């Protein structure tokens, strides 16, 4: 792996940490949106906008939703926006599959908390990158992930490959992750790794920690395989293109 530096230790509570990095050319092949498309690129970590208690409440939302399904392999997805839920080797639409029973699983308070947390993360990203929060739109996929050490059964379970979000999902301009469990306490492995030319920089998950970054090749990354325990997180992604925007999930 070459040299590995820890950008954010689990045991440290970080107010705000930001590392600026030159932007890649990935944004040039997409339509630019003034006041939003990254001109300043980099990565940040903060433990100061979501409390541990809020992270635990959100993790319970994920646990309740994922208890309805789950992948046969090590990576399960729950997307409250589209309704996508891992089930065996496939995905089902949670809302169609379970219908009115959804009201026994989730509450309006759950969705209000989810929305509030999403807005705080969006505002922090806008503030750090010097853009207008109103010019950013939530985009898909935005989802909960649950990872454990079960062997992969399909390519969807292989979460550990290096990738660039802007290349994988053209709509992404800013990516964020809210961690809902603790590295070394709830799981082993599973650190987030930025893969730079000179060294790797790791973020150790901690409940309530938000990691965010511009989505281009300047932030090539991967997640280590989880060796034991269960790792919960939410990926919340933003686009500058209103045509790729999605709404907050609603409990119909």
Uncertain runs with pLDDT below 50, 5 residues or more?
none
**Spatial sequence of strands, sheet with the most strands:** 2-3-13-9-16-8-5
CATH top level label? Mainly Beta
Order of helices and strands: EEEHEEEEHHHEHEEEEEEEE
CATH architecture: Sandwich
Q: Hey, roughly how much beta strand do the residues contain?
A: 25-35%
Helical segment tally?
A: 5
Question: Termini distance?
Answer: 47 Å
- Taken from the alpha-carbon principal axes, the silhouette is globular
> What is the CATH homology-level superfamily?
q2cbj1_9rhob like domain
Please describe the biggest sheet, giving its number of strands, its sense, and whether it closes into a barrel: 7 strands, antiparallel
Total number of domains? 1
- What is the C-alpha radius of gyration, as a whole number of Å? 17 Å
SS content category? alpha+beta
Number of beta strands: 16
Write down the CATH topology. Jelly Rolls
Organism: Smithornis capensis
Keywords: Dioxygenase, Iron, Metal-binding, Oxidoreductase
Protein name: OGFD3 protein
GO cellular component, one term: membrane
């Amino acid at each position: 792996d070459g040299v590995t530096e820890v950008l954010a230790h689990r045991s440290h509570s970080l107010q705000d940490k930001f590392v600026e990095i030159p932007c890649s050319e990935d944004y040039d092949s997409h339509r630019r949106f003034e006041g939003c498309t990254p001109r300043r690129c980099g990565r940040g970590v903060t433990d100061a906008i979501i409390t541990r208690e809020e992270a635990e409440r959100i993790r319970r939302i994920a646990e309740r939703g994922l208890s309805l399904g789950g992948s046969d392999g090590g990576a399960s997805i729950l997307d409250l926006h589209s309704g996508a839920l891992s089930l065996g080797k496939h995905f089902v639409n949670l809302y169609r599959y379970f219908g009115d029973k959804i009201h026994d699983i989730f509450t309006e308070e759950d969705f209000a908390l989810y929305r509030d947390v999403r807005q705080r993360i969006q505002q922090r990203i806008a503030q750090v990158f010097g853009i207008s929060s109103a010019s950013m739109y939530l985009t898909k996929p935005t989802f909960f992930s649950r990872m454990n050490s079960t062997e992969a059964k399909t390519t969807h379970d292989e979460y550990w490959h290096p990738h660039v979000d802007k290349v994988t999902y053209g709509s992404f301009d800013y990516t964020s992750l809210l961690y809902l469990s603790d590295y070394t306490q709830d799981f082993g492995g599973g650190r987030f790794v930025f893969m730079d030319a000179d060294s790797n920089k790791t973020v150790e998950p901690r409940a309530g920690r938000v990691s965010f970054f511009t989505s281009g090749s300047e932030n090539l990354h991967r997640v280590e395989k989880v060796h034991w325990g269960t790792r919960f997180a939410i990926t919340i992604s933003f686009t500058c293109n209103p045509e790729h925007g999605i709404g907050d999930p609603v409990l119909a």
